[in-house]
């Protein structure tokens, strides 16, 4: 069984724990146990699936039994068969033929698995599809899941996962499908990079059913976002006032500079200005003295 590359037992009535011996299948690339009644925890030694720890590029030198199968059927009958292998990924059923060997997948959806997602899953660098939806998994999403750079589809919906969404998900550059809906996740939804390109028609559907999540694309704002919501008219009025005062200051400084330069370089202007200033000063001084004498001088007595 060491050369087994695909184990597909979906849609049966299997129950009990997932046998640890599955992780001894070093050549396994597709593990499909979906739609059964498996219970207990996920195997902790997933990093023993050596074929899933390699990158897609390394598959060029690996024996492909599916390619031989399709070549035999085509050459033996004179026409090709349309008997694709159907696998669930990206929320839909897709058909694969001889290129199925490049589809590295773990699908344990629709079971009764409990406990935490093992952190060893972050070692499966060649994984393209990971579907653990519709179980009873709890705990945090492993932060090492951000190591899976080949991952194209991640479905962890309908579980009991809690904590924050790992920031590392934003760096999964191959990710084209994400579903974290209906869990107990909380905190701010990471943004930027790859996550902003997913489900652009309805991005909120990836996170619905998590009452503790906040931030874009959900309508619920995080507590530290806009602590005091101010009306729009206030911002517009404040901006107008700022522009007015800025223009007033610039105009005042420009006018002052023009006057200063005129007095500095125009001798006639300088004489006229200071003469006017002396005349105004003398008039004001005489006016103040006369007014003071009229109000405060004591009337003379005979």
Termini separation comes to 140 Å
- Please state the structural category: alpha/beta
Mean pLDDT: 81
Which geometry do the CA atoms define? rod-shaped
Q: What portion of residues belong to β-strands?
A: 15-25%
Write up what this structure looks like.
This protein is an alpha/beta fold and 302 residues long. Helices cover 25% and strands 19% of the residues. The chain is built from three helices and 15 strands. Helix 2 (232-265) packs across helix 3. The longest helix is centred in the last third of the chain and has 34 residues, at 232-265.
Supply database-style keywords.
25% helix, 6-stranded parallel beta sheet, alpha/beta
In short:
Helices cover 25% and strands 19% of the residues. It has three helices and 15 strands.
